[in-house]
Amino acid sequence: MRFVKRTEKPLSLTTYAEQWTEELLSQIEKKGSYSKVDDEYKNKYRQEDVKDALEKMYTCHCCYCESIIGINTYGRIEHLKPKSLAQFHKYTFDWDNLHWCCEICNTSYKKANWNFQYPILDPSADDISAYLRINLQTGEYEEIDGNPRAATTIKDTGLNREKLVKVRRRIIIHVVKDFKAYQKCGDAEAFLTGLRELMEDMNFPSLYDELITYLSGITRTP
Ligand SMILES: [Zn+2]
User: Fold this and answer.
1) How far is the CA of 188 from the centre of ligand 1 (A)?
2) CA of 221 to the centre of ligand 1 (A)
């Protein structure tokens, strides 16, 4: 998980978000509950320009696990504050609440999780690297200074699910091994430059970022 800079609100939301919100809230009142409202009132955020903007904002990565979206999985528009919770119906069409997410994180892990005391971190608002880091020995995410919001985020988005940890650990082992081989040939800097150029096209760019920072430290050590 990493910080991204939120881009400009797509035109469909600038034009209609307010109207769609009013219609949705009045339908909830009329029908007596959110679950009884027709999907057509709930799903209007599913616009092509919203999907395009989110995909671009997240450079085709999942907002939680950072897997690449669009090759083995479709992207889902994610409501960080779950739209099904009464307190958050009003944020269904709120651009600041929309994120880009892989199907697995969306449907099997984050779901409608929310912690009102220690909210899940917002990748477009919180400085994620001040809360979370990847342990380069284990491949697991860790909360920095025991931060409770970071702990909620790890737990409620499944950041340390077994398959993710295993793949991250494998990447760490291979990258460190390759780095040492290049270092022996005096090519450590070239290796890191190559890695930096590639990282946005890989799964887990923030893992590569942490690895590059760590390995750059080794390069500088006499
Ligand atoms: Zn994901």
Assistant:
1) 31
2) 36
